[in-house]
Each structure stands twice: as structure tokens, then as C-alpha cells.
Amino acid sequence: MIFRVSGGVLSYVLAISLLVSVVLSMLTLYVYYARMEHSHYLTRIRLQKNLASGIQMTLGEYDHFAYDQAYHYDLYGEEQDSINILRRAWGLLDLYRVTAYKGDLEVSRIYTLAHRPAPQGRSAVFLVDDGRPLSLVGDTRLIGDCFLPVSGVQSAYINRVGYTNDSLIYGQELKSEKKLPEVALKEAFTKIEKLAGGEAEPDEDTLTNSFGADLVQVKAGNVGVNKVYSGHVLITSNTRLVFDTLARTTDIVAYAPVIEFLNGFHGSGQFFATDTIIIHNNVKLTYPTVLATYNRDDLATIQTRGKCEIAGWILMDGSKDGFRRRVIYLEDGTQFHGMIYCNGMLETYGTVEGHVTVKRFLVNSQTGVYENYLFNATIDGTKLDTAFLALPQWFYKKEGKVLKYLN
Description:
By secondary structure, the protein is an alpha/beta fold. The protein has 2 domains: about 5-115; about 120-390, no CATH class. The protein has helices at about 5-60, 185-195, and strands spanning about 70-75, 80-90, 95-100, 105-115, 125, 135, 140-145, 145-150, 155, 175, 200, 205-210, 215-220, 230, 235, 240-245, 250-260, 265-280, 285-295, 300-305, 310-320, 325-330, 335-350, 350-365, 370, 375, 380, 395-405. The chain has a 6-stranded parallel barrel. It has a 5-stranded antiparallel beta sheet with strand order 1-2-3-4-28.
């Protein structure tokens, strides 16, 4: 028996065969790309784990890495888990870039590193033992452990005003030493002086530069700073840097003989002056901010004028002689949260929530100048929260912590 098939049926068969072939091809491609995407996903997960391992290496062995030298590691010796580590100085902070890579895939993080404070850094005061006691006057409060001279602490009078509280120290009295711990502030200033980057000005009102990019330098001259600067930016002047009310800064470094923050300025960064830093009323400098002066011959001052808020670190150092030419002055209404290092004279009428390391305290009054006196000052070492980190300068633990992840 002979079956005859219409020619139209053959067309249907061919069409269905083509459709099935397309569907099978699509399924094959889907499976292929799904497997490829899953493989990339597993690779990215592995890169993230390797990145975390690299970060932990920097935290545990931070002093193993020399500055500006790239380190390459194969984590497990299988040529599958490679990382790069680069350490750079950024002001007083250590800046790390860790990159994990495999083939053309890579992930990286950039961050600043600091430390947990040592027990001394958790105290209220470390006052150098110069053979004279610490005298307290008025409504002065020292809260927390205090490292003091052998001669101890006593109540006293200024302008017929005596000490008004019921305890001299609200904490344990411990013995200090005859010298301040040394800080590498001179070396830090030298490094900052050598920093140089491509000169730039913001096209509009903002300049944001990633820490993954080359340094950008803004030479302000005598012109006030009134724009928004963020990231890997160095702002310098040969004379005076004045940060206007309209200006905002984040994570930058600034360097000049004189730095001044006008009424209402808000920002963060590291600010280095060879002469003077002035903080006016209603200024808010957020954590992590560094204010530092280093004088070689001339006077050096850091002073607040009015109600302001500062969170971070204040450091003052200089040549071995002439510590009386270096003065930190915190006016009544100043709220400081952090750690202070003063190889000079500290005159404070504000509130310090944190730690003070100081050569001498100072009070200026109508009846005279009094050294190692505190008058209506509050220093509360118990208010330094557990998340606060210390600079790798003084009174820090030998264990690194991520201070801030950067873009």
C-alpha cells in the first residue's frame, strides 16, 4: 500500500524541526551561561573571602608592610588566590589598599587603619612628673583613672575661689613618668611637606577624588576655602587657610602655617599647621578629625573661640626647648571627644570626653599665671566609647583596626 503525503505537511515538519532546534539551542546556551554565571559567582565569593584575609593580614601585621611598596601573595600556593597589599601614609593615618584578583576579575578595598587605645589612653589624664602637684580649682572634675606626679593632686584657690567638689579624682590615682611618650609628629610634617599631586580646582562647587586615583592638590593661596572637597585631596597654602562657612571637607589633608575655621563650618579631615589653628563658634569637626601643630622655633597655638564640637585627636609638639611657646586653649563651651597630646601647655575650660596627655596645665587669671592648675574644667576618661580608636602615635595597642573604609 502506498501512502501519499501532501507537500504542505513537509513544510510543517520542517518548521517544527526548526523550532525545536531553536528551543534546544536556547536551552543549551541558557545552561552554558548559567554555569558560567554560577562559576563567576563562586569566584566573586572566593575573591571576597581572599580580600577579607588580606585585610586581616594588615590588621595583624600592620608594621610588616613598608610604605609605598606593593606586596603580592598567593594565599594557598595554588596560584588561584592572589592578593596585593599597598600601604601609604595619609597624614597621621596609615592608608591601605588590598586587592584580590583572579584572571580579569578583581575586588579591592581602601581604608585607614588605627588601633585600640592602651590602658593609659583610656585614662582621663597623663600629666608629666615635673616635681609639682596638680592643683584643682572651682568646678573641676577629673573622672576616670589619672596618671599624676608623685606629688599628687590638691585643692587650691584662684581669685578667692576654691575647689567646690567633694572628691579630687573620681577614679584611681596612678603614677606618671618624667617624660612624655614620644610621637613622630616631626616626621609626619616632613612627609606632608613632600606630598605633591596634580593641581586641580573643582569645576563647580565640588571636588571629589577617589583614593584609588592619584592625589589631587589644591593650592589655595590667600583665598578662603569655600567649596566642597572630599577624598584624596591635599589643600595647601604658604600663608593662611581659612575654611569658610560654606565649605565642607571629608577625609582630606590640609597644610599651612595658619588654619582657621569660620563660624558654622562643618567637616572632617586632617589639618596640620606650623603656627596656629583657630576654631570659631558653631564649628563642628566630626570623627575622625586630626588637628596638629609642630613648631620649630616660633609660637604654636591651637585655640577654640566659642561653642564648638570636635571629635578625633589634637596633637601639639615641637623642638625640645621652649615648651611654654606651645599652648592649646579650649574655651568654655568647647566639646571635645577623643585624645589630646600636648607637649606644651594646655589651658582648658571646656569639656573633654576622653584622654589628655600633657606636659603642663595652665590657667591665666587676673591675679597671675598658674602652671599645673585646672579651673572649671571637665576631663572625663570614661566617656571615650569603645569604638574610638587611637592613632599609631602614643598609648595604643599593637593591634590594627579598620578606622574607616574609603571610596
